[in-house]
């Protein structure tokens, strides 16, 4: 029997991912006119030093930072409306960390994250996490008020139309995955994917849930439905760098 793929739950990230995401966000955030600034982010004149544990952590840090950027206005309004910001115990230098961790918290539906035993705790992350956790009810209520105010069924609905259209186009594109032939053969990949419940089809027009096809121009490239991204990245084939996401 084909093995059913697991449902990937959002359990949060390692402390280092939050710190790197905050540093990235600090450099890419939208700066507002002086007469509209209500949330202060501290000094960003010095380029931050980023240290990533591995490629997966790097990807998660950038995805978290750019997700926070997309929803910066929403996140700032939630912080202000809930009276969680400003806070004397959270300096301006940690506001970016506060914002990216708030995005991740609401993305987990305000559920506590899973703490990884093997990770090195980061004091700033634990401090901000504890602070946000104490106000989860107020933050959730502020988000609900925002959605009611804007008539939004979900947080995605509050994005500007141009961004929503861009995301719709991006989500429709198939994922391109390279086979690392230095570590595994194409035949072994096909056999391994079959064991994991994937079915090979002729083209992207034949895509269903757990399917893939060969790229017509590159013999060592596979195409997958974009909806499988999180599940694919959790496969050992990616962890072992036998498959590489383009």
From TrEMBL:
Chain coiled-coil ranges: none
InterPro entries: NSUN5_7_fdxn-like (IPR049561), NSUN7 (IPR042620)
Nuclease as UniProt keyword: no
GO BP, sorted A to Z: methylation
UniProt lineage: Eukaryota, Metazoa, Chordata, Craniata, Vertebrata
Gene3D superfamilies in alphabetical order: Sun protein, domain 3
Record key words, sorted: Methyltransferase, Transferase
Keyword Signal on entry: no
Protein name per its UniProtKB record: NSUN7 methyltransferase
MF GO annotations: methyltransferase activity
